[in-house]
Structures are given as C-alpha cells and as structure tokens.
Fold this protein.
Amino acid sequence: MLAKLDHVTKRYVKNEGLRDLTLDFPAGQVVGVLGLNGSGKSTMLKLLAGLLFPTSGHVSVFDGQPRSKRSNIVFLGERDALWPWMKPTDAERFMGNLYADFDRTRFNELLDALEVPRRKTKTMSKGERGRLRLAMALARDAKLYLLDEPLGGIDLISREKILSSIVQEWHTDETILLSTHEVAEAEGLFERVVYLRDGKLALDVSAESLREGGKSVVDTFREVLT
Amino acid sequence: MTEHDGWSLDMSSGPIFEQIAKNVHQMLARGALTPGDKLPSARELAARLSVNPNTIVHAYGQLEADGVIEKRRGLGTFVREDAPVTGMKHEMLHGAASAYAEESRQLDASIQEAIAALKEVWDAG
Amino acid sequence: MKRFMTLVWLEHRRNWMWSLPLLGSLLFWAWGIKQVLIMDVAERLAIRSGLLLAAAVIGAVVLAIMVGRIRSETRNGQYQVLLMTPPSGYAHIGARFAYAAAIGFAYYIAIGFMFWWILELAGLHLDARSLFDLILFTPFYALNITVLPMLAYVLLLMVFISAFRISGSGWIPGLTMLLASPFAYSWLGEGIVKVAYTLPGWKLFVNAPAAIIERFGQIDPEIGTEINTAIYAGAPIEPLLIMIGLTIVLLVVTGRIWQEVEA
C-alpha cells in the first residue's frame, strides 16, 4: 500500500477534523476526495503530507512517517502560497535546488503549456498563480501527489488547462489524491471517489461502478452529502 | 456533458469506457472515421476529454476485442481495415428505432402516428 | 551545501528589505552625531557615544522582528511549502539564523566605523591595531554575547508557538517559556559573572593611544579607570564561550522542534 490511514482521528483546538478514518491507497490510482467545506478533506491530505500529526491512529506513506518521506510526496495546498517577489525562474531555482526529482526542462514545458507569464507572482492573476503552482508540483517525479483544491477560485480556461496537464503528466504507477469543489469538471479523471462528511467516511466507491448504475459522481455527491 | 470533435461524454449515462466505445461506433457509422484511420493515443484523448487514461485504455481494449480497432506495434491504434462499417449505421439506427417503436406501442400509437411524430421532430431540427 | 545556500538565498529574497531600516538607522544616527554641537569636547564625545549605543539597540530590535516574523507566513501557507521541502529543520533554522547574523555583523561593523569617526571628530587618532579591534573584534564579541543568543531565542520561541498552534494550546507553554526567561537570564548572568576571568582575558585595545583613555577620563574619572582596568584585564572569554554555546544549543533545539511543527 502506498499510503494508509488507520483509525485516524485529528482534533484541533476547537473542533474535530477527522473521526476514526481508515483508508488505503494503492499505487496508481487517481482518487477524488470530495465533501463539503469542513468535511475533513484538507485535514486528510495534510495528514498524508505530514503537515499535521494525528491525534490518534496511524498515518503511513511508503511504510513510514509522512514527514520523513516528504521528499517523495508532492503537496499542493489550497492556499495561494507563493512569495510575491517570486518569478517562474525563482520558482525553478527554489524547486530545482531543493528537490532531486524536479525536472527543469519539464517545468519549462509545463509553463508553456499552461501559459504562465514570466513575471512576479504579485502581478499575476489568481489563475496564473494557480497554474504556476501546478507546474511546480507536476515537474516533480514523485509517487504520491496530494492536490488540495487545485481548481479552487480559478477561471474556467485555467481549470481546463490544469486538468489536462494532470492527465498528461500522470504515470500509471503514481497515485493522485485530488480534492475539489468542481466535481463535474474533474470527475472523469477519478477512478475512485472518497466522500467525506463531518470528518467521517460517507462512501468509498469506484467511479465507473457508480456510472454503471446510471449516476454520475456529482449525482452521488448530492445524494450522499445532503 | 463534454463534447470535442465528435467525442461526447455524459457522466450520468453509464460508464465512460462504454461511451467512448459507442462514440467510435457512431463516428464509424456516419463516416467521420473510416477503416485505416488512426485513433488518438489513450493519453492524448484522455487529456482532451479530461478523463482517466486507464478508462480510454479500457474502451480501446473493448473495441479491439470487438474487432473494430487494432494496435500496430510502435505506430498506434487504428481502425481495422475489415471493421464492420457497412452494417454499423443500420445496426445503430435499428437499435434506436426499436426503442422508439417500443415506446410508441406502449402509448398505443399507430405506425402512421409514430412516423408523423418522428417527421415533425426531424423537420424541427 | 547547495540546498543550504538555496535556503540562504530564499532568506535574502524574503528579508533583504529589512536592511533598509537598518541603513536608515545608520544614516539617522550619523545625522544625529553631526547635530551634537556642545562646546565641551568631552561631553560631545559622551553624547555621541550614547547615540551609537541607541543605534546598537535599534539594530537588535529590527533583527529580532525580522527573524520572528513567522506568523504572516503561517497565514499565507508559505510555511507549508517550507515544511514540505527536503532539508532538515536544522538547515532551515540555520539558514534563517545565518542570514540574520550576517546582516547583524554588517550593521555592527558599520557602528564600529562610526565610533572611529566620532573619535576622529574629537581629534583622537587610533592606531591600526586598535582600529581593527574596534571595527572587527568588538562587534564580534558584542554580537556573540548579546544579539545572536537573543535571535536564537526569538527563533525558538516562534517555532515553539507554531509547533503547538494548530492542535494544542501553544500559548500555555509559550507563555511559561516567556515568563521564565527573565529568571533564566538573571541566573545565567550570575553564573557568568562567577566564572568570568578564570581564563585569561581577550586583550583588545592594548596599544590604544593614552590620549583617548585620558579623554574618556575627562567625561568621568571613574570611566577612565574602568577602561584602563578593562584594557589591562582584557575582555572575559567565558561569557563569549558560554553565549556561543547557548546559541548553538538554542538553534539545535529549534531545529528539532521544526520537525514537529504543524501547518
């Protein structure tokens, strides 16, 4: 198993992020992580990234503690976390010097494909920054990609570009966990869908088997979560 | 509903791999694809339609098993020269027509009424 | 090494603008020094020296704010990006500290030069060896026993708070640490005084011209005597060693806590 959550509970100061969640993620799956705001999607992805530690239960990635495996994990957080002075060339220097698996050529190809302007992020639109962050993430060659709302607050054209780059860069042995509110646009990508509600698992199902029953991932979203 | 040069998907109408296979049948039936034509690679088509590449591989596998397409080593995926194109249009029309006929019968409509209704809809475009 | 230098580069890109207030402070005090126009030479020298002391304190405050500014990065998610990078917490903390220390050195060396300048204004000329002591060894000594341990402590405090911020009550241990620190410092100070001069002192300004010491004696005879004793005994080496050791310990602890930070 590439990544595992074993009876994981995460409690914050004021509320509970996850309650007794158990999930396994084998290599080579594209998984949609779906739920309403506050359902625990970000908490789950951050636990797998090693940015949070479980209150109880056990999280493992590549049979180890996620924090210690961070050089093999790509994490794209939902926040617009780039320094305002950063240009794509600075981003390349930052990523290329810190990550052994970062491919500078591929990064520049991705910048072209995603049409990222070569200027400071503070003068970019939110969509352009989102595309730059995605190029930084996808130019790495890791086995686990945790993408938290890569389509959030981004224009339609950027969203399409982002989705098609994800498809293009995905290798069959890599696992992608993608959380999104744009379920309809992204659902074709998902092989498996995990629905979370109030920090608990509501449904864990194969996307094609849902469709076999004549329901889309979106239809099921409405059914399970409301 | 995703539409893209002849490819059209609806996430609420059954598994995507079946829809992809059906798309190929439809394109062959109306002549948008002919025997010997090259199909896009699984990854390319997946990126275009924003679907999982494995799903396209699954659909292509199905079409290959049905004798419609073949993989040529190092070249890509092609419509077979002996793909059953001629019968295909008729077969698909037949399938759609029998569904319509069944529905008409249940409404206790005569064949004239059914044809008239079809003609009305047809002319309305 | 490439990774570490990249982190230092990142520090520079994030923080270079903090050199601007420092530069501004230097220019401001230089201007202030020129404004002191009291007739009595000794008094003038005393006031000018006092201004430089103020400049030194301001530098420490600016540097502390620079390294302690973790909150805004936590909010914007940049902390997440940093925590996900492969270098260890020790490298991250080391880079932050090294950059602040380098800026600090530049600033305090500039203050050393300004002191030389006010001596020249007072008609006092330093020999080469004393000038070296003034602009190099004195800043090194002073920085290592005051500013650098303080910066390490600020880093520790900030990282400590952020380690417990999300899922625990970080302010309780943080506050405890903050409240305990005056006691820790007075205890440390007493300890240092006790052991000072068990080793021979570090001789600075041994060849300083007698005229300079005389001039300080004119400000206050007691100061003159103290300077003479200090030059004779040298700067105590124990505080320097103890504070360098303390700084290293604080940095190692901070680097270790970095591994536990949640973001």
Remarks:
- The two ends of chain A are 32 Å apart (CA to CA).
